[in-house]
Amino acid sequence: MKDYIEDRVKRIADYVLTSNATVRQAAKTFGTSKSTVHKDMTERLLTISPLTAKEVAKVLQKNKEERHIRGGNATRMKYKNV
Questions:
Q1: What per-residue string of b and e applies to 38-68 under the rule 16 or more CB within 10 Å gives b?
Q2: Which pLDDT score, from 0 to 100, does residue 43 have?
Q3: How far apart are the first and last CA of the chain?
Q4: What whole-number distance in Å separates Cα of residue 4 and Cα of residue 40?
């Protein structure tokens, strides 16, 4: 793996762990696509640091379980402000 990719994976993992960020938020912050962040966190991070990968997986799973709530809140706010 190239050094710049490994560096990006580590930085994104730290960001996700410290801020409980979603894949979408991490992608926007680091200027990459959602699929790149997802691949970095699920595949590449596992080869770099398995322990960190496990912690990141917990955060991403929690975000996945809560996304329907965030979507409902966004819709509520959209029509509340109309």
A1: eebbeebbeeeeeebbeebeebbeebeeeee
A2: 96
A3: 49
A4: 12
What is the distance between the alpha carbons of residues 80 and 34, in angstroms, rounded to a whole number? Answer: 29
Spatial separation of the C-alpha atoms in residues 25 and 43, rounded to whole Å: 19
Regions of the chain with pLDDT less than 50? none
> Each residue of 18-38: pLDDT tens digit?
999 999 999 999 999 999 999
Task: Fill in the DSSP letter of residue 49.
Answer: -
Q: Which two tokens stand for residue 77?
A: 């706010």
Closest CA to 56 of 66, 43, 70: 43
